[in-house]
Write a structure and sequence with these properties.
By secondary structure, the protein is an alpha/beta fold. It has eight helices and 13 strands. The strands form two sheets. Strands 1, 2, 3, 4, 5, 6, 7 and 8 form an eight-stranded mixed sheet that branches. The two termini are 20 Å apart.
Length: 258
């Protein structure tokens, strides 16, 4: 998700981040890896055991970054300053349904440049993300990713759910705890990124694994006109080469300013 911000807004510097519902602070590691200029982070978490774990992990982190840990309940007023990047990862699904809209609005007020919200890539997780997306769009807020438009989500209209996957390596302990045999797993997630300033985005988004055959590639695309199936053939040369390299979740087509 953060790499997508880097891709679509390469000129923007992220000097500070706020993690709402930080858990052990893993989003901090991802943010620092993606944005080397990150120098300050505030992490809010309600569970004291997660706070202690996060502080222990942070002891082995980059000493050049200033990290502030605060025990806080997101359902109460957020008494923190604005940050360039605000993240809420796997948090909203744990909160009462009636509290989600107000929390998202509060989070947006604290986002100087971007607000990132991630939920599990399940039907329930997507429903939460789609609700958040609708709330943001109704408030006139620009969506940077993954949506290539601000229309009603065509995946929801089709009774489907928009999600993507990230391959995660499993340690031997991880495999033992989860009863797995493979050295990796594919973590499915749904997300939305809101931007303070509108930016050019891809005209479409690939929302299924591309089906690559001999001589042609079939793509399922989310577009402003709804879900579309397109076939790119070998005769299309450069476009075909691009399609052969494309993956689930990638943008597709010329930039859009919607």
């Amino acid at each position: 998700v953060l790499e997508e911000i880097k891709h679509l807004a390469a000129d923007v510097e992220i000097a500070s981040m706020l993690d709402l519902g930080a858990g052990p602070g893993t989003a901090l590691f991802a943010a620092k890896e993606t944005f080397p200029e990150l120098g300050y982070a505030t992490l809010l978490e309600s569970d004291p055991s997660w706070l202690k774990m996060g502080e222990r992990l942070a002891e082995h982190f980059d000493p050049a970054i200033e990290v502030t840990w605060t025990q806080s309940d997101l359902r109460r007023p957020l008494m923190v300053e604005e940050h360039d990047l605000v993240i809420m990862s796997y948090v909203l699904g744990e909160l009462p349904q009636g509290a989600i809209e107000s929390i998202v609005r509060s989070a947006w007020k604290l986002a100087r440049k971007f607000l990132v919200i991630v939920e599990p890539g399940t039907t329930r997780g997507f429903a939460t993300i789609n609700e958040v997306r609708s709330t943001l769009i109704a408030a006139g807020i620009a969506i940077l990713a993954p949506c290539p438009h601000h229309n009603v989500c065509p995946m929801a209209v089709a009774g489907d759910w928009c999600h993507f996957a990230q391959r995660v390596e499993r340690t031997s302990l991880h495999r033992q705890l989860k009863g797995g045999e493979l050295g990796f797993e594919d973590e499915k997630f749904s997300y939305v990124v809101a931007a303070r300033e509108p930016r050019s985005t891809p005209a479409a988004r690939i929302v299924r694994h591309p089906r690559k055959h001999s001589g042609h590639v079939q793509l399922t695309l989310c577009t402003a006109e709804g879900l579309k199936q397109t076939t790119v053939t070998k005769s299309q040369k450069s476009l075909y080469r691009e399609a052969r390299k494309a993956g689930w979740g990638d943008g597709w087509g010329v930039p859009s300013t919607e």
